[in-house]
């Protein structure tokens, strides 16, 4: 290779200046300006995109961006002003259409212009902090059209007028509306809000305020709610069709406020159609509507709840203190159950099973059930009635349903220990008279009580069942054994009751007839033979007997009587007539029981196996009794004495209550000792609170009684007062 | 010396210690552990034998009468209660040998004359708040039957009237009236002791009575009684 001179390539700038034709910028601009005009005049098809783009590009490149931009602004503004005039000139209904059409045009034009000026948009605009073309176009539209003095108000008024007409029932052009509102949105959410939404909401508020006032004067509650619901749905539909989605929450809250919140009290308390009427008449649909509407407003639910609660309390209270109702305990309880059922259904169907409403129902029941202190007794009597006959032939499932409902009422009782006492008494009578409809039902009830209140509550009740079963076994053993040889003596059936489990009743023994006595002694011997260390006491006030009796014309009847009655009747085997005194002496039955017994034998129509002289209703000390030869009855078997559970008389009620109070004292003391043992030192009020909490599942202790128990414990040196602070008590180990 | 019942020597000590200020001297004296004056145990035996019952080794009713006579005080004078308190007597109207002798020893007397001289100072002890409370509470155990837990109502009323004559309580008569009309049963120890607190802290118009104040229920009932009968206006 020959040594060639290496040439270094150098790149140098042009040594001569490139002269840009000063008129170049002006010329180029003119081309572009012309193009913009053509675009606005719908003549864009004749233009070359490439050429225009290049021109714009060159202008920017040669540092004429500013000229281009400001030219654009001027040109566009000029066009928009012309457009504004044409829109303003539109008549009536065509106004919106014209606006819409021009807006469409403008957008198309803007797009083309933006495409042409894209280079400027990307380079000159950002570096000079100018508004991009598209946005510029929107802003100019906004400023020159929408905010033009003649157009602005007219636009708003037109829109609002159309909405108003639609509310009144006219059909309007929803598509057009949508386009307009979308236009406003595109111009910026503040434009939409300021130029349309805010006034729209104001106008709507006054519209609905007026309409609701009108409705409420002439409609009843149910109708009003229907109308309110309809309007609400309308507005939501309106939004979905031609307003911005964000407006929904705002307009619905306007409707809710004007139509519902402002009239809540009046609606709920409306005479003859308000909430209370709806409840009474089971208007599920109306109630459901009210629930759904009121849930939208503050305090809506609490308003309904409060009115419902006070209605329940009032109704319940009336039910519970009405003296007529108190005559029939079973009916009393049935009504309570019916009331509960009714309202449960309402809450279920109309109030969406809302828990807060359920709670309001529960607290109302708890309030009025305890207003009547015989409620525990009556509920027990209701169960007794059902278990003795009411549930006869009812399927197992339905039995469970009934018992579960009763348990719901039971839960409301504050004095559960009173219920326990009565339940025990009634159960004892059922068991001993053999009058229970279903053992399974009995056991089911016990299980439910145990689940609710714990083992202690039901242990004695279960003991009673056990005794009954054991007695059956004992009787079998007795008859199998040698003790039972008695030839043709009376057949004995004994129930052996464990003292602690059965309700205590003081029993005055009476003189049993000789035949009975011998059989009883045989049993006693047998029993004590197998169970040493026990003591048997005959409860003559609780037994029954079946006697065969032959009357004057030879009619034979089988009489089912109480033990006392049997003793009295047996006397007439040896004498046709006996005076009261003779009977009393012979049987040694206590006077009040004897009188009742004689009354049932001599003074009751259809059951008068004895005749009394004189024929008065009451038993006097010098009455004489005769065996009633002339006794007749349709039935062969006549039931005279039954030991049936009944509503207690006043003195009995008083006595039971006293026993309950007595039983509560040791429970309170035990609670106090338990608390003090763990806390060691505690002030008076805290003890009262703690004791109440501990015992509330059984009963509500009286603070005065608690105080007395504390003093008793101080006396017995379980507790002492603190030396420094006399309100404190100290546990003494 | 007349008030504290002490000897001249001790009195001078106290006055010197307090710079010859009389009030200060009292403070000084009472804050000292009681200076036991020496007693002659033979004298004490003699004294005991004078009052002792002929059949039982105790001073019984007659002996007490005689003692009171010698001391020139009435038997139902409240100062005898104070004496009994010093003796830690178990029950009223009786003193055991132990109680009598050690009681007199603690009082620092061994003759009737000294005993007599001590009486005014014993009476003065009732004016002291703390001592009064102790004597009051002592009185319950002392006045009740040995075998019982509670104090019979009549005895209690008698004691209250005696005690509250010393320490004036305006409601004492209503209290006794209330008990006879509404309560009619024996008084428990707690009720007894709490009554003093009630009398001391609650004003007779019951303006600061607090129903939540953990007073014995008998006192709560008493307050109700006062309201019901218009003796005190409710709503104070």
Structure keywords:
heterodimer, A: 733 residues, mainly alpha, 5 helical Cullin repeat like, Ribosomal Protein S5, domain 2, three-stranded mixed β-sheet, three-stranded antiparallel β-sheet, 30 helices, 65% helix, 5% strand, elongated, B: 236 residues, two-stranded antiparallel sheet, 12 helices, 60% helix, flat
Secondary structure blueprint with pairings:
The complex is a heterodimer of chains A (733) and B (236).
Chain A: H1 22-40, H2 49-61, H3 65-89, H4 94-116, H5 118-122, H6 124-127, H7 133-146, H8 149-167, H9 174-186, H10 189-218, H11 221-242, H12 247-260, H13 264-268, H14 275-280, H15 284-294, H16 300-321, H17 329-349, H18 355-369, H19 375-390, H20 396-412, H21 416-432, H22 439-453, H23 455-480, H24 514-530, E1 544-550, E2 556-562, H25 563-571, E3 577-579, H26 580-587, H27 591-602, E4 610-613, E5 624-627, E6 637-639, H28 650-679, E7 681-683, H29 684-695, H30 703-715, E8 719-721, E9 728-731
Parallel strand pairs in A: 2-6
Antiparallel strand pairs in A: 1-2, 3-5, 4-5, 7-9, 8-9
Chain B: H1 8-17, H2 22-31, H3 41-51, E1 58-59, H4 61-71, H5 79-87, E2 95-96, H6 97-107, H7 112-125, H8 129-143, H9 153-166, H10 172-183, H11 189-201, H12 217-228
Antiparallel strand pairs in B: 1-2
Helix pairs in contact in B: 1-2, 3-6, 5-6, 5-8, 8-9, 8-11, 9-10, 10-12
